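Researcher: Next entry: Rhomboid family intramembrane serine protease (Flaviaesturariibacter flavus).
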Amino acid sequence: MAYYSQQNRKKLTVGADGNALMNLIAILLMVFIIFAFIEVVYTFTFAKEGSARYHAEVFPYMAMPADFRTLLSRPWTFLTHPFLHDGVLPMLSAALWLWAFGYIYQDLTGYRKLIPLFLYGSYAGAIAFLLIENLIPSLHAGAGNLMLLGAGNGVMAIAVATAVLAPNFRIFPMIRGGIPLWVLTVIYAIIDLATIPYTAPGLHAARIAAAAMGFVFQTQASRDHDWSAPLNGAWDWLTNLFNPDAPGKRARKDELYYKATVPPYRKQGNYTQQRVDEILDKINQKGFKSLTEEEKEILKRASSDGNI
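Model: Predicted structure:
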């Protein structure tokens, strides 16, 4: 896919309803600000020991530990670790790369695939990280002090998926017609992997697994196998639980009652002389009380018409 119609593009704005990219970046920034504030409080409270105590008492309850037994005591960290960053530079780097690739991916696919892809990449990387650090004996010995955190795995999945979706999409068109997107993806992958310590192969495995997830996710999407549908369906169901205007909920219709001073219209059929005679015979046999309301009405009309 070398290019796509400019007319079919949806301009992404900060205030756009359902803008998944902006929502995701906002969540990352919000979590970062909250924990940065907690660290500042620790620093003012405990002075020189503040940062160390923060990383010992607070930080481990959001970052995912490499040791599986420790993870069992804090299982929620498997879900929370992609949203935690330790320092301004890691947070800024993650946000910028997420914006660079996420903007293009969301512009091409819409709002509903970006966040599921980010989560799939993050958790695929987490699984690979746990397997490498716990199944290789030489690595397991040092797994006790190693933790996984940050949006890097999710961003890697988005970067690879975007390159698979539109490898020849060009950025910076003023530079000799533009730089192909796949080149930017390769540059990002090299920079990202180079910043990971060589002594932590589990972190490298996490990035590779996230990249593989991005590749498979987009390859399946091109075959009309939407892996984002289960997460989107679960989210829609959850958000619609308490939404009275949600599709599928039956709204109660108001019942209106009117007070009238005249009796309602009643359709009256024609009567025959034979019918009148039958009613008179019934009176002779069973009495007037045996007549129905309809028969009484017929007699009344026949009397007023002079037919009795």
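Model: Note for the record: The longest strand covers residues 64-65.
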